[in-house]
Specification:
Elements (H helix, E strand, L loop, with lengths): L1 H17 L2 E6 L8 E2 L3 E2 L3 E4 L5 E3 L2 E5 L1 E6 L4 E10 L6 E7 L5 E7 L3 E7 L5 E7 L4 E11 L17 H21 L1
Length: about 180
Amino acid sequence: MKLAQGLLAAGFSLCVASANAGVITHDFDGFADGTDISGVEIGYTTISASNGVIVTGGAIGNSSSYRADFDMFGVIAVSIDLADSLGGLDGLFLQAYDNTDTLLGSSTATASSATLDLFAPSISYVEFGGLGGAEVYGDNLSVTSIDVGGSGFGTLSTPLPAALPLMASALAGVMYCGRRARNRK
């Protein structure tokens, strides 16, 4: 019977854990070339830059740095592809902050293009761009979120039906163990 209880607990735990996590990637290809998306909601973030953010060739560009504010709770990872368009940078950077503007972590690269990743609890916004002031282009902004409080707009979550097979297998295991125990008596 302990095996049955363990199977039930494991299935329920996996069900709950997988029902509330999600990853979304925005590749900016939905915007026409020349569109200024500075301060515009793009589904889950607000992208802003001091001199505007222009979509060109499916990537954001025309600034040396950007800020993306997240409209969801529980952001734990961010990734972005960055490229120095003019080749004049000292490097690329990605920095994550919480809602009190405390730096949670940073990632840098010295190459002219790189994918930068950050993992930190409770990320509210990130800043990314180039060191040295030249233009930087970014694409494939990817955010991993765990909805820890039903944040409303922008909340990422895996649909509950995806977790139902786990729960069903746990219940089947409990029924099987119960039937074996009754047959032994």
